[in-house]
Amino acid sequence: MKKKYKRALIIITILFFFTLSISTGYGLWKTLKDSNPVDTSKVLNCFKMYYSSNNDTISLSNIKPILNEDGNETSPYTITVTNICSEEKNLQIRLNILDDNTIDLKALTLTASGNLESGIITYNSLRNAKTNNQLVKISKTLGTITIKSKETIRTNIRLWFDEKQVNSISPEDTFRAQFELIDMSTQTKPTFAESILLNNEVIDGSELNYGEAAVAGGLYKVLIDNNDYYFFRGAVTNNYVTFANKMWRIVGINTNQSVKLVLDTSAGTSQYSTYKNAMDYTGIKYIYNNNLVDNQINKFLLEWYKNNIEAKGYDKKVQDNDFCNDSFNINENYHRYFAGYNRLISAKTPTPICNNTTEDFGGTITQKVGLLTADEVAMAGGVDNVNNTAYYLYQAFDYFTMTPAEYYGYNAYVFYVNGGGSLLRTTTTDNHHVRPVININSSLSVDGLGTIDNPYTIDEN
Q1: Mean pLDDT across the stretch 322-341?
Q2: Cα–Cα distance measured from residue 331 to residue 308, given in angstroms and rounded to the nearest whole number
Q3: Which pTM value belongs to this model?
Q4: Does one domain contain both 244 and 116?
Q5: Which residue in 90, 206, 337, 457 has the fewest CB atoms around it within 10 Å?
């Protein structure tokens, strides 16, 4: 009897602890299930944001490059955003490369799905964004989404390194990046000049050889009176601008931050002057009988500007600027050589600085429209008597510059660009095409990337 009792007691004890463990386990599971998850959200103005990785930072090491078709199968970074305000908002999503990133970004590839859609694109092809964050090396925009009040959107972003584009990745390399969400209503858009600088790697131009016809394209910088002067050179493909229903090319950024544009085609043909028997006719303006006179080329420019810019309501976006009609000259045995002749033919040292002059023609002219100088053509890639069809200022027609060249034998000569892209000299009474030049107000902003398919467009406001 005692044995049966002991056996029953043991069984009861085992059942008790078994039941207790089940009850405790269930209670623990139920507690975890019913409890609220950790709130990893962040609030930015009207946006409440959640990141699938619990924060906005990506930190990867031991990276193995893969093919693009495999990249689409990787786990995404999911960003969920709710507009908690009562009005519709625009949200910009950026991917910032942090300062401690050690991997070359050439092979960085990504795609987006959900409320923000994109095919397979490289990171370097994205538009740069302006950032004041000292920890960010590069900031690029993935896209912008409009979110209605109380609406929730979700975007999945996959990123990988394309093995066909990889130079080298060592096991010690680390990819460090961060998503950044921007409430566009609180952002001030970068100016035109800032957008150009954001979208280009600036190259030091202090050691350029202007005796060689430029082929490779880029944005260069030189120092002018302690101010930065930027200019495009060579076969540039991202300096297109649409303005006043016309296509233009960016020549550069002036020291006052205005942006210089040249018409990407011809505005028509004209003589530079109806006369050639005096040095004065190399000036777009000159003094005659104590009166300031517009030369033929300036009459053409001012009339074109009036009809195509001013009359169509675009004048307020164009800034008065100094145009260099360099008339400084030296007399050598009855042959007058202008300063541009020595700079561009002999020394090959073009400059955006304009010489002071004591002549009653030319010099620095302040107005809203002008022409390229021969120096600007040379800085862009043109060379005296050397054809170059690769640089962005090349056109298959002859066109005037506003730089005087020489005067001898009762003939006044100015520089022009021939149909082969070479800098040459022509008499002032010859007919050539005219490419007007304007300067866009430094305070204006733009959209677009500057390419022929997506040119910069100047904001209407």
Answers
A1: 94
A2: 41
A3: 0.75
A4: no
A5: 206
